[in-house]
Design a protein that fits this description.
11 strands; disordered N terminus; single chain; two-stranded antiparallel sheet; alpha/beta; 346 residues; globular
């Protein structure tokens, strides 16, 4: 791609250009070109291309986040906010979100449509320099949604989070909610992002956890079947699965598993039929207060992207240690692993 003129550079705040060492408008084009970037439609975008699996994942999420009606209901946002706060804690307790003479730079690594950051951090985003980065053109949706909330001081970039063109040790916090497992390597993404954090800074992230053998097999089988079709066809192909999840949920029937089935990692106890399928056979999300499209959005998010790695807690802990991160908060659930860590000073 060719470098494009910076005639719409005023859509990015001054602190962003300072971060890229591109404060002089006269030489900005040259600086962006040197970094492998171009300014298009008011957003800085990378010129580099990733792997085919990453490109497929990019297309998938670009499609998903354009479907705003499937995730923007008041109920859906409230549920997301509650889930985020349960895992990360009350956002106002984080020092980097407090007003200060030097506004913290917060990197939302894999921001998508800005959904998680807006719901978790809310109005505290006015106190920071927010940089939303995503490999897909969902960043355009994020910019629109931030503007709708009156958060005009945010910056956005379309780039691979494993190859960010910003200096190491340049941000105060990284927030990466359910993203690093969608890169070619979860560990490589974690390591690359950790390098961008200043000593003493925070790293907040969530990654998928490995499931039992039947779920893992079925998930990979379904995901493989969806790889060679456009995102809209993958969305349609998953609708019958979402309908089955809804039907199982509406049955409202429980079964008793008398003894743990260790071979299949299924614990003993009472469980609804829908949750038995959901956790141990295939992901068919169900909530009685959600529409079918909202449930299909969640199932699509899981099955459609090619890159969707699952990991163990031992792996995540080891990766954090190797990256110079001390874990301060950890929540391990069947679905995934949430971590709040601090970058060591040495």
């Amino acid at each position: 791609m060719s470098s494009m003129p910076c005639n719409d550079s005023d859509t990015q705040p001054d602190w962003f250009w300072d971060l890229l060492d591109a404060t002089d408008p006269a030489s900005r084009d040259k600086r962006l070109q040197a970094l492998g970037l171009q300014l298009r439609d008011g957003i800085v975008r990378t010129e580099t291309e990733g792997s085919e699996t990453q490109a497929q994942t990019e297309r998938t999420f670009g499609f998903k986040w354009q479907k705003r009606d499937t995730y923007e209901s008041a109920g859906g946002r409230a549920r997301m906010r509650e889930w985020l706060e349960r895992r990360y804690g009350e956002p106002r307790t984080y020092a980097f979100l407090e007003p200060s003479s030097r506004r913290a730079i917060v990197l939302d690594a894999g921001c998508g449509a800005g959904y998680s950051a807006l719901e978790l951090f809310g109005d505290t985003l006015e106190n920071v320099c927010y940089l939303g980065v995503d490999v897909s053109d969902a960043v355009d949706v994020a910019r629109t949604r931030f503007a709708e909330r009156g958060l005009d001081g945010a910056a956005f970039m379309q780039a691979d989070i494993t190859q960010l063109p910003i200096p190491d040790a340049s941000v105060d916090a990284v927030f990466s909610e359910g993203v690093m497992h969608h890169t070619d390597s979860t560990q490589a993404a974690l390591t690359a992002l950790a390098r961008k954090i200043r000593p003493g800074g925070s790293f907040m992230f969530y990654v998928y956890r490995r499931k039992g053998p039947i779920r893992e097999f079925t998930d990979d089988y379904i995901r493989d079947r969806l790889q060679d079709v456009p995102p809209d066809e993958a969305w349609a192909a998953l609708e019958p699965l979402s309908q089955l999840g809804q039907a199982l949920g509406e049955l409202d029937v429980e079964v008793e598993i008398p003894e743990s089935i260790d071979l299949l990692q299924i614990p003993a106890g009472r469980i609804s039929v829908q949750r038995l399928f959901y956790w141990h056979v295939f992901k068919a999300f169900y909530r009685p207060d959600m529409t079918l499209d909202e449930m299909n959005h969640i199932n699509f998010d899981w099955y459609a992207p090619r890159n969707a790695h699952r990991q163990s807690i031992d792996e995540v802990r080891a990766w954090c240690a190797e990256a110079g991160l001390d874990i301060e908060r950890e929540r391990v659930e069947d679905a995934g692993i949430t971590v709040v860590a601090r970058k060591r000073s040495s």
